[in-house]
Prior knowledge:
The structure holds two protein chains of two kinds. In chain A, the strands form two sheets. Chain A has a nine-stranded mixed barrel. In chain A, strands 8-9 form a two-stranded antiparallel ribbon. By secondary structure, chain A is of the alpha+beta class. Chain A has six helices and twelve strands. In chain A, helix 3 runs antiparallel to helix 4 (87-106). Helices cover 26% and strands 25% of the residues of chain A. In chain A, strand 4 (151-156) and strand 5 form a beta hairpin. In chain B, a hairpin with a 6-residue loop joins strand 5 and strand 6 (107-115). Chain B is elongated and about 60 Å long. Chain B has helices at 21-24, 26-29, 75-79, 124-147, and strands at 5-9, 35-46, 51-59, 65-73, 93-100, 107-115, 120-122. The model of chain B is unreliable at 1-23 (pLDDT under 50).
Amino acid sequence: MKLIVALVAVVAAVLAFLFLQDSAPDFDGTPKYTEASDFTGTPNFTGTWSDPPARAEDAFCHIGCLIEARDHLTNLLNDPALYDKTYRELRNQAQGYQITQLLPGYMTPEALARRMGNRDPRPVSAICEPWGLVRIALSPHALQITPYEDHISLQYSEWTALRHIYMDGREFPENLESSKYGYSIGHYEGEELVIETRGVISDNFGAGGFVHTDQANLIERYSRVGEDRLEVEVVLTDPLTFTQPLVMARAWAWAPGEEIFAYDNCVIPE
Amino acid sequence: MKLLNLVLMTVAIGYPFSFGQAHHAYFNVFDMASISQIEGRVVKLELLNPHTAVYLEVVNEQGEVEDWVLEGPGRLALVRRGWDDDMFEIGELITVHGNPSRQGKKAMWLDRVVRSGGDEFVDPLIADELIIEEQRRQQILQYRQNQE
Lengths: 270, 148
């Protein structure tokens, strides 16, 4: 009887190990990227994407931006009356518009009161604190997308953050426990990959010192534009923070040779 | 070594900050609307995440040696743009352009580093910005030529 129990335990351990191998791709710090896709699904986002192309609006949104602010920048850039202004001047103008005028208009009074942004007494600005879901979803630098049979993994170079997107048609669990990156379920709609995430902890999402609460819900819509460009539109709702959904965007350029290496040496300069 | 001069050029120059800048607190720590310039000798380069640090010895106008830290984009961004751990000799004289500390600390945010031989290492985002600026100039030139 003991032998049977032992055998069952060993088999269970092996199965669990294999399951974890499949659902959580190892990241061992060695260069790891996908040159081409074995994935036959449609659409195909497989591979490594990185910083945006050197294009005005993309650079402005390189860590995400409100689409309204991006459109505002486009209008500024296309206004002949502003042709004597540099891109930098107009970008700063659009950024100021985003942070000081647009964003506060989306916030509940309580959220505005929670706003961070006191002058920081430290001599340097680095923070060794991994970013939350919204900020990592809009993270600059590399994003490696790998489809599996029942899920997709999103591996970010920053913090080597790893997200799992379940693609097996499951529903959100009841009594979802909050976590850093929440619980994500995805599906395809035409040429788009649509991901919904719930169950995130309250976190700074990077927008001028604002934070969202654990009531936040994130919907990401990824689309591939041609061979070399990946775009995402992100809709963030949080009834305790926003009076209306926040619609943001970011773009990546195809970067098949880019390495993702361990982000395990975070150090704050002395 | 000589502190050239902390030339604060309030010339509407700002770091290409974006929606997510607050997590790095650039604006709380550095004055992104100003550019300063210092010259000093490299003590140490730490090519780290999330930010890189170059430690410098700078001689001020009184002839005193000051310890400065130049903070810049992290290893993720800079290695792809040609930086490596051994790129500077210890004691190498470099000129640094960057955004000064808001608190008057001996710290800057990297805009560009110029080596004594003239080689420049530019913040990758600044490098992209130069491309975009040139594209904009060309488009405006084309527009004006069409108007004539």
